[in-house]
């Protein structure tokens, strides 16, 4: 579990760094455009790229905290005997979905490595790589979330 904690720290650090960079870049762009009268040509594209990465990396944190898209209200309201079968099923479906996103996102990323962004000239595949990286992190977080919650709830049932 030490490695999981270390990965969580790294993910949080990346999110904070990207978000702080996004805020600084947008503020600089506003200052340059409206005060100095000259736009930073790279700012809008950089902000968009950072925003995309923040969304997909941030998904890892939401899954870790159990804030992912599932039917929590329905799942938590069923009796324990049903819950111990329904909860694994819902998590399995989520994991299969995330695995599909990893595979398809990786294919899309590889397919777009030759296309470059207009201003920064970064391969679009690097930007699209946020999808499989984020989905892979969400997949590991989903498995970890399932194990932790299943042990807590089923431990009281058995």
Structural description of this entry:
- There is one protein chain.
- This protein has one domain (2-157).
- The model has no long low-confidence stretch (mean pLDDT 90).
- It has six helices and no strands.
- The protein is mostly helical and 158 residues long.
- The two termini are 25 Å apart.
- α1 (2-36) packs antiparallel against α2, α2 runs parallel beside α6 and α4 (80-111) packs antiparallel against α6 (130-157).
Oligomeric grouping of the chains: single chain
> What distance separates the N and C termini?
25 Å
Query: What's the overall average pLDDT, rounded?
Result: 90
Radius of gyration: 20 Å
Helix count equals 6
Total individual domains: 1
Major sheet summary line: none
Unreliable sequence segments: none
Order of helices and strands: HHHHHH
Percent strand = under 5%
Structural class from helices and strands? mainly alpha
Silhouette: elongated
- Got a strand count? 0
| Percent of residues in helices | over 70%
């Amino acid at each position: 579990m030490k490695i999981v904690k270390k990965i969580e720290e790294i993910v949080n650090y990346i999110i904070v760094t990207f978000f702080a960079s996004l805020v600084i870049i947008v503020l600089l762009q506003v200052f340059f455009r409206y005060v100095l009268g000259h736009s930073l040509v790279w700012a809008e594209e950089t902000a968009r790229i950072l925003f995309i990465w923040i969304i997909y990396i941030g998904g890892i944190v939401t899954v870790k905290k159990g804030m992912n898209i599932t039917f929590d209200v329905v799942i938590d309201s069923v009796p324990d005997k049903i819950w111990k079968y329904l909860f694994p099923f819902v998590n399995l479906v989520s994991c299969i979905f995330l695995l599909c996103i990893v595979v398809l996102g990786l294919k899309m990323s590889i397919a777009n490595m030759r296309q470059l962004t207009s201003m920064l000239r970064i391969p679009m595949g690097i930007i699209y790589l946020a999808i499989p990286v984020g989905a892979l992190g969400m997949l590991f977080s989903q498995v970890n979330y399932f194990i932790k919650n299943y042990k807590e709830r089923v431990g009281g049932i058995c």
